[in-house]
Amino acid sequence: MQSRVVPLEEGEEVTPINRTNQSKLSTLRPIRVLVLFLVLCIAFSIVSIHTIRYFGINSVVTTAKSSTFRPCYEEPRSLEQWITPPSNLMHNMTDTELLWRASLVPRIKKYPFQRVRKIAFMFLTKGPLPLAPIWERFLKGHEGFYSIYVHSLPSFQANFPPSSVFYRRQIPSQISEWGRMNMCDAERRLLANALLDISNEWFILLSESCIPVYNFSVIYRYVMNSTYSYMGAFDDHGPYGRGRYNRNMAPEVYINQWRKGSQWFEVNRNLAISIVEDTIFYPKFEQFCRPSCYVDEHYFPTMLTIQAGNQLANRSITWVDWSRGGAHPATFGRLDITEEFFKRILEGHNCTYNNGFSSICFLFARKFAPSTLQPLLQVLPKLLAF
Length: 386
Ligand SMILES: *[C@@H]1O[C@H](CO)[C@@H](O)[C@H](O)[C@H]1NC(C)=O
Ligand SMILES: *[C@@H]1O[C@H](CO)[C@@H](O)[C@H](O)[C@H]1NC(C)=O
Ligand SMILES: *[C@@H]1O[C@H](CO)[C@@H](O)[C@H](O)[C@H]1NC(C)=O
Ligand SMILES: *[C@@H]1O[C@H](CO)[C@@H](O)[C@H](O)[C@H]1NC(C)=O
Ligand SMILES: *[C@@H]1O[C@H](CO)[C@@H](O)[C@H](O)[C@H]1NC(C)=O
Prior knowledge:
By secondary structure, the protein is of the alpha/beta class. It has two domains: about 55 residues, no CATH class; about 280 residues, Alpha-Beta Complex (Spore Coat Polysaccharide Biosynthesis Protein SpsA, Chain A), CATH 3.90.550. It has 14 helices and twelve strands. Strands 2-1-3-8-5 form a five-stranded mixed β-sheet. It has a three-stranded mixed β-sheet with strand order 4-12-9. The protein has a two-stranded antiparallel ribbon with strand order 6-7. A hairpin with a 2-residue loop joins strand 10 and strand 11. Helix 5 packs across helix 7, helix 6 packs parallel to helix 14 and helix 7 packs across helix 10. The structure holds 2-acetamido-2-deoxy-beta-D-glucopyranose (5 copies).
């Protein structure tokens, strides 16, 4: 800023004065030249000041002024400022600016500092988080190994106390509706904000009705040790799989590449950046996947299948119950919460995990109504040791 403003002011003053001087020098006595010079100087200064005020450039001037006060022998900036996460999640960046900023990637893969990998828990909600006490309890004692981000309706005012893990973790948000592109925008916004913290390694999308079904240590180890880069449900056949494909998406997307996934996914840093930087698939999905093509079920799974198919787990680690039928999975109420119920989620599974099998299939579960909070707080700590 400094270098832009200062020469501008100099240029304005010097150029016209020189010209005037040259034309009058031959005919006027030196003293008159001096007086005229001074008058012109003053007049020009007044005009400049007014012009600047009038065009509202005064903020630029202020910025320039404050930066000139910095000593020029200032020490070089330390690495800290590049690796310390932003202390305030509220920023003034537009989505375009934010996505660009989030797509900046270091090319040297070895970090020159001790990087403790964190999980970013990203909550996509309408507003309140009725199950927040469960998450508080789940995260207690694991500070430094996780970050929280909350995207809610812009009208929602969060009022978590300073002691809460959700305190001031709200990101600048916009309206998002199920099945529409603005839902994917919200998810990319969450990813982009979380990418600004260079220590976040895994990004887990959650809703207000999600709960963890293992303690933090188990989930952290499972996720950090995963050889997959993306975990989310997959289905590439059937009416919902390929039936929603639109041929206009070719050549970017062909029908055999079309996927249906779950909105709730887990993704590592590498593929999170692919999602945030995408400009190839976004316009196709925006234009050709509109209800009843629910874009939030297709965009990321299809795009990632094309770009990084062999890194996908092709299964979800978020448990849901579709057995009751309908367009939405079952929502559980307080009477559903029993130890037997959790045995159904936790036991008797055998899932592919990395190059083998694991009895742990699901790390999270949904959907839980607000009324489940008290029974969950009773049963979960006992069941999951947290
Ligand atoms: C955003 O910009 C406005 C006006 O330029 C300013 O008042 C406000 O403090 C800024 N907010 C943040 C979070 O920087
Ligand atoms: C990954 O798994 C190994 C062996 O099971 C374990 O020792 C290690 O702590 C795990 N890594 C993390 C980050 O939990
Ligand atoms: C998931 O599916 C893709 C093809 O869509 C395949 O390349 C990949 O190996 C599959 N992943 C696993 C873990 O089977
Ligand atoms: C899990 O399933 C695979 C193949 O379906 C089988 O080879 C393996 O033994 C099973 N593991 C357990 C613990 O049941
Ligand atoms: C987390 O759960 C595992 C198994 O469920 C248990 O062995 C472990 O002690 C628990 N960890 C903590 C920190 O409570």
